[in-house]
Amino acid sequence: MWDVASAWLDEQCHVCAQDSNQRNTGPPAAECGVRELNHLATGPAPGIGMPGLTSLIGIQEKGHITAGSNQTMVVSGAAGACGSLAGQIGHIMGCSRVVGICGTHEKCLFLTSELGFDAAINYKKENVAEQLRELCPAGVDVYFDNVGGDISDTVISQMNQSSHIILCGQISQYNKDVPYPPPLPPAVEAIRKERNITRERFLVLNYKDKFESGILQLSQWFKEGKLKIKETMINGLENMGAAFQSMMTGGNTGKQIVCISEETSL
């Protein structure tokens, strides 16, 4: 029986790792519905791994969602690996309304027609502030933030009293010489403090004790059809750089995957 395992390794076709370099997440592969590729056990889709854990644990630990309390969640970078899962998990855990922000009409349609988002905003074509006021008339209670910058400033300005920001990523700020999390503009920071909006640094690796239960929960939702996973695939290790660049500029929908080999044996 295979076990589900993960490790911090380089991009390569094969690896022989010492036990100390591996981290066994615990549940047998059969419990997670895993598939076998190149004699390695992986999740039912790569999104069940780190993106899924980041989204699930981030929402559990920082989102403070209460089923039945009519909460509205907004997700930026909503068509990416974490964002696309976060919106679905928000619905599963009890948010009554989930609105995604992304960069193309096709991605907006994907979020609403396939992933169950209630609405989506194309920030490149639409006025985000106006759309948020229309689509979130009761304000924003939970914000899953993948991007930072102007988009996040706009969302925070429409958040409710004692609401919560899940600080997953700040992709618009990564090339700037600023601390993490990046400071908010003074006017936005004043709103955050006045409304008691939480915005705490979140790192999923600080919650390794929750990985086993998280993988099992995500896998169960996946098998039940409650959680859908999208991947963008590119073939060849030599295209790793191009895939990374595409991901960083919004070229992917869901998890960006580089397929090393389709061979079934080592």
Automatic annotation (TrEMBL):
Keywords: NADP, Oxidoreductase
Signal peptide: none
EC number: 1.3.1.48
GO MF: 15-oxoprostaglandin 13-reductase [NAD(P)+] activity
One Pfam family recorded for the sequence: ADH_zinc_N
Broadest EC class assigned to this enzyme: oxidoreductase
Domain Alcohol dehydrogenase-like C-terminal: 83-184
Protein name: 15-oxoprostaglandin 13-reductase
Species name: Equus caballus
